[in-house]
Amino acid sequence: MVDLKIKKRPIGAVARVQRNGHPQVTSRTGGEIGVVTGASEEGFNPLDLMFASLSACLVLSARIAASKLSVLDRFDGASADVTGEKSAEEPYRIERFIVAITIDGDFTQEERHQIVHMAEEICTVSNTLKTRPEISLSVG
């Protein structure tokens, strides 16, 4: 089995918006992404970013799972299609995440299930969404 070393990196983001225009989000490592607000605008809105975080975490975790299971040599890739069902009433929230994961490579269905289930256990985002994390809010 491969012993993986996890390197810690700064995490977090700052979003800024002016009186007019769209929010701009900057990560602690300097990455930037613009956020759209219109229903027909191309780009990421806040919910898309949440779905993107879950999908990216799951595919990265699938690759880690394949490595832990010593089958990385047969792992050709993974994709995670994530959407959700939004509540009809306040407080608005995603009530259900709908995730379809595809594992590419020479695997049996049982192996694919094993990779996906292990990926879900590894994924920090899915683990967080399954709990009710505390939000510590301050006003500056």
UniProtKB/TrEMBL annotation:
Database matches in InterPro entries: KH_dom-like_a/b, OsmC/Ohr_fam, OsmC/Ohrsf
UniProt-listed Gene3D superfamilies: 3.30.300.20
Entry superkingdom: Bacteria
Pfam families registered for this protein in UniProt: OsmC
Name the UniProt record assigns to this protein: Putative OsmC-like protein
Lineage: Bacteria, Pseudomonadati, Pseudomonadota, Alphaproteobacteria, Hyphomicrobiales
